[in-house]
């Protein structure tokens, strides 16, 4: 039995509120259970120096957690004067995941920055950030297309992410914090709407896992991502 009472292949309740902020070109508040992440997309008519003049667009991301996103207060990274290693790793993951679903030629020479701010954390913040980040990106691109600034849709495939792991000896979908903290194996699966893999992060903690168990987790991830992509399409239609 999972602590939440969910079935092994059951995700937490997912809700999305689009247009959550007034000023961003695209915004979405995504809630996956008790993990809540605000995702905003900002369009800028510039690109990083290393692709300037290439005609290619760029999608990047920044990630952060509010001090009381967890059960004890975390010091703001700005106060410390630098980002922590975990933050840098996660925002790079978000950026390269979102870029995997973008035709950068069609986007044109502009940059879209997706900011993911964790308001409340209960496991799976990077997965919620990627899933919500794509929604914010989709909304921003819709504005570009409506204005005629982009002719061909640069978003070739939705991108979503879900966690899976082995908890109490059983493969489970969408780990919350009580499961994540006790899981023998924990993984994050980033995929496109057409079920193409972008990245898989798997690690065993005090345990090991077999090829068969890996396949079971992959099947769970495909199910979860399919459900998330359906939600993405519904809220951005």
Automatic annotation (TrEMBL):
The keyword Transmembrane helix does not apply. Pfam families: RNase_PH (PF01138), RNase_PH_C (PF03725). The keyword Kinase does not apply. Phosphate binds at residues 86, 124-126. GO terms for molecular function: 3'-5'-RNA exonuclease activity; tRNA binding; tRNA nucleotidyltransferase activity. InterPro entries: ExoRNase_PH_dom1, ExoRNase_PH_dom2, ExoRNase_PH_dom2_sf, PNPase/RNase_PH_dom_sf, Ribosomal_Su5_D2-typ_SF, RNase_PH, RNase_PH_bac-type, RNase_PH_CS. Belongs to the RNase PH family. Phosphorolytic 3'-5' exoribonuclease that plays an important role in tRNA 3'-end maturation. Removes nucleotide residues following the 3'-CCA terminus of tRNAs; can also add nucleotides to the ends of RNA molecules by using nucleoside diphosphates as substrates, but this may not be physiologically important. Probably plays a role in initiation of 16S rRNA degradation (leading to ribosome degradation) during starvation. This is Ribonuclease PH.
